[in-house]
Amino acid sequence: MTDTYMSIREMCDAYDVTPRTLRFYESKELLFPVRRGTHRLFTRRDRARLKLILRGKRFGLSLEDIRQLLDLYDPSSQNLTQMTRAYELGRERLVDMEQQRAELDEAIADLRDQLRWGEEMIESLKNPNAQAAE
């Protein structure tokens, strides 16, 4: 296409998403491609919004949180409100993610203990005479 517009295929290739994903974000009014007949043409603004959507999803933000952040875009204020809210959401997600990691680390340690116990039990059942010899 041009520097100004990208086709749906170009968007998919550039951002590693499916056409269905782009149509979904469009249906949720997160992206607003220009329509030329049956073609969707994505603007630089759409590309910037898609980058933010994908980053937000990677961090575990809900689509509603992402929508609210996108709606706060206001270049006349140097996006202070948007940046402040993004920072707040980021801090909240970091706390949640660190808690999830701690819970996962605990579950992993517990599973390792259980596997060691299981391994010992299996060995003792395979070799019942080995314990008697000790």
Secondary structure: elements and pairs:
Blueprint lengths: L5 E2 H8 L3 H9 L6 E3 L2 E4 L1 H15 L4 H9 L8 H47 L1 H6 L1
Would you mind describing this structure in some detail?
- The chain has a domain at 1-59: Multidrug-efflux Transporter Regulator, Chain: A, Domain 2 (Orthogonal Bundle), CATH 1.10.1660.
- Strand 2 and strand 3 form a beta hairpin.
- It contains six helices and three strands; from the N terminus they run E-H-H-E-E-H-H-H-H.
- The model has no long low-confidence stretch (mean pLDDT 93).
- The chain is mainly α.
For this entry, give a set of tags:
Multidrug-efflux Transporter Regulator, Chain: A, Domain 2; mainly alpha; elongated; three-stranded antiparallel beta sheet; 134 residues; 6 helices
In short:
The protein has helices at residues 8-15, 19-27, 44-58, 63-71, 80-126, 128-133; strands spanning 6-7, 34-36, 39-42.
The share of residues in helices is over 70%
Biggest sheet character: 3 strands, antiparallel
CATH class division of the domain at 1-59: Mainly Alpha
Low-confidence stretches: none
Major sheet: order of its strands?
1-3-2
Rg estimate, integer Å: 25 Å
